[in-house]
Amino acid sequence: MAGHETHYTLTRPVFDKPVKLLIVVAPYYKDIADNLIAGAKAEIEAAGGSWDVAEVPGALEVPTAIAMADRYSNFDGFVALGCVIRGETTHYDTVCNDSSRALQLMGLQGLCIGNGILTVETRKQAEVRADPADQNKGGGAAAAALHLIALSRKWGGQKEDVGFKRPSDTFLLAGDNDGSTTA
């Protein structure tokens, strides 16, 4: 069972400039979400960073909130937290696949995201994974985001024009071929 194995953990990165992360959480299972948040906050603080928390209704909204925060705020990285427990329908597969895929695509665009959205078969599995004194997946997601921030600073300096691009102020409206009409 993977929960009883010992895994190698990277040394916590050290930053010469402050880091600020946004923890985006879907508190559908409030007790599990609270443990994930506690682990993430502790890891960020241990690295000398600061954090804000944003709550969204469910795991599918986590990527959207991160994209919005990247567009309208100035965070160095993001921690995606939530829990999806398999039920009786295929909705589980949709939520797991689509939220994970959206986070991965944003990461490939340059956002520093730690994915701590648990995808489990049972509540007990979620409780063990969320517990900061056990598997601490919230802390692990924060650590992943911190390591990505460290790499982005090493390779590209401070965050500038990384991630999703803001839409331009000029939009071509239907029927306007010359682009002279703006919204």
TrEMBL record:
- Reading the lineage from the top rank, the first entry is Bacteria
* Involved pathway(s): Cofactor biosynthesis; riboflavin biosynthesis; riboflavin from 2-hydroxy-3-oxobutyl phosphate and 5-amino-6-(D-ribitylamino)uracil: step 1/2
Keyword annotations = Riboflavin biosynthesis, Transferase
Record-listed E.C. numbers: 2.5.1.78
Catalytic residue list: H91
Q: Which residues form a coiled coil?
A: none
The broad enzyme category this protein falls into is transferase
**Protein's UniProt keywords contain Transferase:** yes
Residues recorded as binding 5-amino-6-(D-ribitylamino)uracil, renumbered to this chain, are: Y28, A59, L60, E61, C83, V84, I85, N115
The cross-references to Pfam families, in alphabetical order and at most eight, read:
DMRL_synthase (PF00885)
Q: Which GO terms describe its cellular component?
A: cytosol; riboflavin synthase complex
Q: What InterPro entries does its record include?
A: LS (IPR034964), LS/RS (IPR002180), LS/RS_sf (IPR036467)
Could you tell me what this protein is called?
Answer: 6,7-dimethyl-8-ribityllumazine synthase
Species source reads Antarcticimicrobium sediminis
